[in-house]
Amino acid sequence: KYPPHQVEVEAIQHKTTQIFHKVYFPDDSDEAFEVDSSTRAKDFCQNIATRLSLKSAEGFSLFVKIADKVISVPEGDFFFDFVRHLTDWIKKARPPKEGMAPQFTYQVFFMKKLWTNTVPGKDKNADVIFHYHQELPKLLRGYHKCSIEEAAQLGAYIFRVKYADDKSNLHDIPKKLRDLVPSDLGKLQSPEEWKQQITACYNRDTGKTPEEAKIAFLKLIYKWPTFGSAFFEVKLSETSFPPIMLIAINKHGVNLIDPQSKEILATHPFTKISNWSSGNTYFHMTIGNLVRGTKLLCETSLGYKMDDLLTSYISLMLAQMNKNRTLRR
After folding, report:
1. Which of 157, 221, 222, 272 would give a disulfide with 217, using CB separation of 3.0 to 4.6 Å?
2. Average pLDDT, stretch 60-64?
3. How far apart are CA 257 and CA 225, in angstroms?
4. d(C-alpha 44, C-alpha 32), whole Å
5. In this structure, what is the dihedral angle of CA atoms 235, 63, 78, 43, given to the nearest 10 degrees?
């Protein structure tokens, strides 16, 4: 659909149409995959899933990181068309300074995007490469409602993932708390108390491998209603809720969370959301009837991500409903 991307042009100049593209994964590994001008994102995802021995590519997506944005590639798009379109869009949005050639390098990531059917333990490779590494930063940022006991157990799993059976680092736990315990819980007890509790949990799990610890970590978080969420800190206008809120988009719908108590104040299932829109500084959503429904107005620079997630979750939900209908026939 679009003129060839620079990478395609270079390949043709070198008398080859073989292009190997580096793709990065959440566990800090990366691999090169062959792509050509007619590769669609969906096929690219399937190739990656096959190479990594994942049980399914469902819910996974390619993301392109360019400038300060990370944008999901629609599965039906030709991969290079999308990248070309994106680069052109960024160039227009940010005119280069005089005399300077614009440098828009991009990176391609492959990650879990939709967590509708994600059950820890069902696909070990997906858990170990993706789910654990994507869920860990959300826990440490303090987005989930989590008890001290759960935090100590999770901290022990994180410690085992990093150090396996090497106990020599246990005495350093007080210095490493930021990497082991949710940021909002760290100050609730002394570093020494955290060390005692995490060590006790760690010793109880002797013999567990780092991979088993990753899956055990996920199984604990899976019990929470906020498992597999994408979290957004937003400013709400014209509502009875506190002005600064945490919004979690997950398989249950759009959840409004009190950033202090971490209580879920409201959940809007996808079936009740009738309309939504986004721009550079906002995300708007209508719940219920288009005319008499409730409007949720959020100030955020990540409206494009919220919009895309909502669209993708609803598309997946509709596809599954159609599939079930066909099966019932």
Report:
1. 157
2. 96
3. 11
4. 11
5. -130
